[in-house]
Amino acid sequence: MTAGAPGSVGILGSGRLAHALQQSLSAHGGTVSVLSARDPDRAALLDLDLTVLAVSDDAIGPVAAALAAESAGRTGQGRAVVHCSGALDRTPLAPLAERGWRIGCWHPMQAFATTDTPIAEGITWGITADAELTATLAIRSEALGGHPLVLRDQDRARYHAAAAMASNYTDVLLFHAMRLLEDCGLEPAAAVRALLPLVRTSLDGVELAGLPDGLTGPASRGDVGTLRRHLAALDDRPDTAALYRAAGLAAHDLLVARGMDPATLASVDAALRDPQEPARKIT
């Protein structure tokens, strides 16, 4: 199945990712069939070259086991089943491997906010599979404008934690920043509108300068007075203050990499540290 990669594809799922995969794969040639994970005819997808389980992480194991139980009379010869979880390895698909299907993981490193969100150009696809299936999935990833990243089974949880930190927790930071601007009198939508260009230009800076040089702001300048003023202003928002402190202290290694002198670094850490917590040793 490697050489020509389109081939026939079956997608099991009915959510945002399933819809995005259907649209993108259909646009790049080949036959694409989509069924709900609860469809009584779902095992028919196993007759296609590639079956993609675009279901929740918790559903992958039960769905794979059910497909294996329903696979009587079918052959996995030359066919493969993959799931789209970033965090899970191939283990949940083992019942299908035992019946002859190649198994793998094929995760798009992208957020799908709505059912109309398309597969974006330039995203990374986290792939875990045997050599032949890896080659097939890499071809498909590149055909969709993406970049294949081959991962070991044991690295997938760490890989997905990186994705969650960069994507999901950006939203968390924005939520807390939005609330602070609400305290200043802005409506939520206006607050988000004010913050998004800042986020985009910050990411542009990282893309241009890389890390650690893309880091800006008072901590990067050693502006201890501003850090203290920020925390004083957050006195009535202890949850946000704790997040501010944690994010600032987490910048420690970036500041070291930027070459900040030890005395300034110690002052920044001291300004950000909760007075009730022990001092951090500067190395």
From TrEMBL:
<protein>
    <submittedName>
        <fullName>DUF2520 domain-containing protein</fullName>
    </submittedName>
</protein>
<dbReference type="Pfam" id="PF10728">
    <property type="entry name" value="DUF2520"/>
</dbReference>
<dbReference type="InterPro" id="IPR008927">
    <property type="entry name" value="6-PGluconate_DH-like_C_sf"/>
</dbReference>
<dbReference type="InterPro" id="IPR036291">
    <property type="entry name" value="NAD(P)-bd_dom_sf"/>
</dbReference>
<dbReference type="InterPro" id="IPR028939">
    <property type="entry name" value="P5C_Rdtase_cat_N"/>
</dbReference>
<feature type="domain" description="DUF2520">
    <location>
        <begin position="123"/>
        <end position="249"/>
    </location>
</feature>
<dbReference type="InterPro" id="IPR018931">
    <property type="entry name" value="DUF2520"/>
</dbReference>
<dbReference type="InterPro" id="IPR037108">
    <property type="entry name" value="TM1727-like_C_sf"/>
</dbReference>
<dbReference type="Pfam" id="PF03807">
    <property type="entry name" value="F420_oxidored"/>
</dbReference>
<feature type="domain" description="Pyrroline-5-carboxylate reductase catalytic N-terminal">
    <location>
        <begin position="9"/>
        <end position="55"/>
    </location>
</feature>
